[in-house]
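Record type: monomer structure entry
Structure origin: computed from sequence
Chain ID: A
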Amino acid sequence: MIRSCSALFLFVALPAIALSEETKPIEKGQRVFTTGHSFHVFVPGILTNLAKSAHIKDHAQVGMSSIGGSRVIQHWDVADEKNSAKKALKEGKVDVFTMSPIYLPDDGIAKFVELAFKHNPMVRITIQEFWLPYDVYEPGYQKKRPDKVDRNTRTGEQMKKEHAPYFKSMDDHAKELNKKHGKNVVFIVPVGQAVIALREKIIAGEAPGLKNQDELFTDAIGHVKAPVQALNAYCHYAVIYRKSPVGLPAPNVLTKGKEPLPDEKLNKLLQELAWEAVKAHPLSGVSVERKK
C-alpha cells in the first residue's frame, strides 16, 4: 500500500522529428527489471502477456524488486547480498529498468541511473508518472488520510491542475539526469496522463462499460482495478517498444481476472489513450511526425 505518490498536463506541438536509432520502433525483445510498489508491480506480468501477443521474441522479465509504498531509494538500500536489482545491473543483464517514484526528492533514481549506465551505456531507465494517491498532490504524505475519496466529483481540469506539479517535478528530474549523462537514458511513461484521459472519457460518457470514475479504483488511496492496470501496461509497452498497442488482443488481466471486461470496446479505448499519451509526451522516447 502506497504511503506517498510532470509541466501542466498540456502538450505543445513539436516540430517533426526524423526517426533515428534512438527513436525508431524496437523489434528485439527487451530484458526488463522492475522496481516498484502496488501502483506498478502488476505491470511485468501484463507486459509479458502483451509482448507475447505482439510476437516479440525474447522479451524477458529478468527480475523485480517489490516493496509496498516504496520510494526508489528503498530499493537501492536493500542489502547488497539481497539486492537483485544492483546485481542484474552490474552484470549488464538489463535493457530496460523501470521505476515508479512517488515524490521527489528521491536519491534512489539518480543512483540507479548511474549504476545502470556504467555497466550498460545503452540501458534505458523509465520513470512511471502515475495518478496521485487520494487525488491530491501532497509531498511527504504525513497527514491522516481519508477513508473515502469521491473521485466522481473531479473534473478533468481539476485533475490536470492537481497533477501538474508532480508531473513537472518528474520531467525536470529526467531532463537533469539526461543532461548529466550526455544522452537520453531516462524516459517518462505517462501513465497518470493516460488515467486522467480515461477519467475524462468516463465523465463524457465515452468509456464503454464504465459509468463513473470510482469504478476504476478499489480504495481511497487509489489502488486500481483491471482497466487501469491494463492501461498502465499499455503505456509501458508503448515506451519500451516504441510501438502502438492498438490492435493487440485484450490481455489476461481483462479477460481472465476476477472482474471481466465490461465491454470489448473498452480495450481499444485503453490502447488508444495509452498511445496518445505516450506520443504526446516529449520525454517518452517515441518520436512521431508532429505538425508545427
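Annotation 1: Residues 135 and 158 are 10 Å apart (CA to CA).
Annotation 2: Residues 156-181 form the longest helix (26 residues).
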